[in-house]
TrEMBL record:
Keyword Transmembrane: yes
Naturally occurring in which organism (per UniProt): Polioptila caerulea
Protein name: DRAM1 protein
Keyword Disulfide bond: no
GO biological process terms, semicolon-separated: regulation of autophagy
Amino acid sequence: MLCCMPGVAFVPALLVSWSSAAFIISYAIAVLAGHVEPLVPYISDTGTKPPESGVFGFMINISALLAAITMYIRYLLIEKQNESSHFVRSSCNVFTLCVGLMGCTGMGIVATFQELAVPSVHDIGALVAFGSGVVYITLQSIISYKSCPRWNTYFVCHIRMAISVISCFAFIPMIVFASKISMTKIDWTPGEKDYTYHFMSAICEWTVAFGFIFFFLTFIRDFQRFSVRISTEIHED
């Protein structure tokens, strides 16, 4: 089905499906193995102990690569559209790409350095991944509005901005509640110390993560109209 998609739409489609599978499979294995409680664990908690840690690390690293490819193609699309419309500065497009690639690097750090093994490095990677991701989708939402009505509909722009706003509002309490947790552990149970902070922070984390997934889902229609040659030149179909 992905191969039959026109243009390069299969790239964000693969990113969305692969990333969703990474979260769901790791969660299912961790819960079935009894390593985490089923009620809203941290995403990283579901990829800390073997065997789910291997699955989580492998799949999230692939997701980071797919996200980087998607962001680069998006950059090329905007550059091509901007040749005739001039709706955004090229420097702004480059900056947005760099922010997105920082987020992909953070994802790689999260997947490589386990939460309990190297917590400080893992936390830095998570902060970079989520922080850069929120900034990236916000900038992309603004660029989308600037490209209306020729390259985007206002309906799609409203959806992207709504996802960005929700992700921003979820990101802030995620950091605040996480900072109040006084211990590093994955086997949380209701009623123990700091559980409420953990629970609220985890809800916000899942909200931001799936906000990214739904945001990239909106790229599929844009990518259907374009194809990328090996020379990296982009042409409208």
